[in-house]
Design brief:
EC number: 2.1.1.107
Strand content: 15-25%
Protein name: Uroporphyrinogen-III C-methyltransferase
Shape: elongated
CATH class of the largest domain: Alpha Beta
Pfam family, one: TP_methylase
Mean pLDDT: 92
CATH architecture of the largest domain: 2-Layer Sandwich
Keywords: Methyltransferase, Porphyrin biosynthesis, S-adenosyl-L-methionine, Transferase
CATH topology of the largest domain: Methyltransferase, Cobalt-precorrin-4 Transmethylase, Domain 2
Structural class: alpha/beta
Largest sheet: 6 strands, mixed
Number of domains: 4
Low-confidence stretches: none
GO molecular function: uroporphyrin-III C-methyltransferase activity; uroporphyrinogen-III synthase activity
Bound molecules: S-adenosyl-L-homocysteine
Length: 473
């Protein structure tokens, strides 16, 4: 059976700057080969095998030959292979060579375009690559040539009126500047250097041809970066967006279509995910539905399992008609509403129960509920820890929306990772969550109200008073 290779553009860094087709290919893939510059957040939704061909395993980089061979071998095994490349696959980064190799080896393939850093990276700091007053063309140039000793056509490049964008040029910065000046470019031409554009650790500087190398050294700006030469660069001064949470790298529990993710990203933060545990359904005894009692819902997944069990036994939601439904908190009440149930009550004091109450939830979460004559905990499912592959040193803050998310993360960490997490600021959404953080040894805990609004406000306030600075590695 013959497989298929997709050369997919991952965009410049921000995981939301991805095409819809690229997103679908990631979900469909059997195996993904990805590069160093690709944001790991993009690999969160896939169950595919992932191979990092960009780093240095045992000091031997995956050579281009090996990558080419691997693509062909995997495709010949009948796999759907995604070759995930930063930006656009055909803007440097050897996408063209990979296509040629696949073609020569009769492997079916396609190219899924991506947003290139060569354009979007400028926009990220407020530089329009063209502008009627300043640049009527743009030129994307590599600062790193094949080792043939060939020089770029400097007289031609220096005389272009349009914007010059150099990729892979940081090691050659002085050389680039010298050649441009030597070939007649005005020494005062504005130059911007943008590192890690659209990533959380994006940094940028603005100067002119004469001084840029000095500024870059002083500010310790390195690769990966774009060198932008031309009058448009100066627009960065006025057009650079400065969203409130810019530079903040925040970890949240993984959830498909997470509103917490969207709200933080919209405020300018970069959000990464940690894996929640995997859910395993438990077998549990359904209470006698003909004897109405109270049903206290600890979480919405448990309510879903409860429903499934009712249906499996040939009944449906109507059999709960005489039951009193209690939501553990406002968030659960909202979820219940979406499932067509208006909770009779929000919150319950378990030590003062007056009637029989069944509590449904996750097994660990219910461990704190003690069985009594009136109180019957029913664990409908349990979470089993999964391995975390996050580099916690890259983050400043973790947001925990529930105590379960705290327990899940902590129980999935090895000793080193645990130390990493202890170095982060933890935002606990609610008193119980804060207590759980403290009980599990997390030191730097800030309690917020259990609402996204409150999380945003707390982060903005902390940044304003300087408790959070933009740190750069
Ligand atoms: N195909 C990619 C470019 C690959 S070459 C694209 O279309 O964007 C790798 C070079 O791209 C890096 O050395 C750097 O110059 C540039 N680059 C890629 N992503 C970048 C980013 N987020 N910020 C700054 N430069 C980036």
């Amino acid at each position: 059976m013959s497989g298929f290779v997709s050369l997919v553009g991952a965009g410049p860094g921000n995981p939301e700057l991805l095409t819809l087709l690229a997103k679908r290919r990631l979900v469909e893939a059997d195996v993904i080969l990805y590069d160093r510059l690709v944001n790991p957040a993009l690999l969160m939704e896939t169950t595919a095998e992932t191979i990092d061909v960009g780093k240095l395993p045992h000091h031997h980089k995956y050579s281009q030959y090996k990558i080419n061979d691997l693509l062909v071998t995997l495709a010949n095994q009948g796999k759907r292979v995604v070759r995930l490349k930063a930006g656009d696959p055909y803007v440097f980064g050897r996408g063209g060579e990979e296509s040629q190799f696949l073609k020569a080896n009769h492997v079916d393939y396609e190219v899924v375009p991506g947003i290139t850093s060569a354009i979007a990276g400028l926009g990220a700091v407020g530089i329009p690559i063209t502008h009627r007053d300043f640049a009527s063309s743009f030129h994307v140039i590599t600062g790193h040539r094949k080792k043939t000793g060939e020089e770029l056509d400097w007289p031609n490049i220096a005389h272009q009126e349009g914007t010059l964008v150099f990729l892979m040029g940081m090691e050659q910065l002085e050389n680039i500047v010298d050649n441009l000046i030597k070939n007649g470019k005005d020494q005062q031409t504005p130059v911007a250097v943008i590192q890690w554009a659209t990533h959380w650790n994006q940094r940028s500087v603005l100067s002119d041809l004469t001084h840029i190398a000095e500024v870059v050294t002083k500010e310790q700006i390195g690769s990966p970066a774009l060198i932008v030469v031309g009058k448009v660069a100066e627009l960065m001064k006025t057009l650079q967006p400065k969203p409130a949470l810019f530079g903040q790298h925040i970890l949240v529990p993984y959830k498909l279509q997470s509103r917490l993710f969207s709200q933080l990203q919209d405020a300018g933060a970069s959000v990464g995910f940690f894996q929640r545990g995997a859910s395993r359904q438990l077998d549990f005894q359904l209470p006698d539905l003909t004897k109405p009692a109270s049903l206290l819902v600890y979480d919405i997944s448990a309510y879903q399992s409860f429903q499934e069990k009712i249906i499996a036994e040939g009944a449906d939601q109507r059999h709960l008609a005489g039951w009193k439904i209690i939501a553990k908190n406002k968030v659960i009440a909202q979820h219940l509403k979406l499932a067509g149930i208006m909770a009779d009550q929000v919150g319950e004091n378990l030590s003062h129960l007056k009637s029989t109450t069944y509590v449904i939830g996750e097994r660990h979460q219910l461990a704190e509920v003690t069985v009594s004559e009136l109180l019957h905990p029913l664990a409908t499912y349990e979470r089993v820890p999964v391995e975390q592959t996050i580099d916690f040193a890259d983050y400043q803050t973790i947001v925990f929306p529930s105590s379960l998310s705290v327990t899940e993360l902590i129980s999935s960490l090895n000793q080193d990772q645990l130390m990493g997490v202890k170095g982060l600021r933890c935002l606990a959404m609610g008193t119980q969550v804060a207590e759980r953080c403290q009980a599990l040894g997390l030191g730097n805990v800030i309690r917020t109200e259990p609402s996204y609004q409150s999380v945003l406000q707390t982060l903005k306030e902390a940044k304003r008073v300087g408790k959070i600075s933009n740190s750069h590695r």
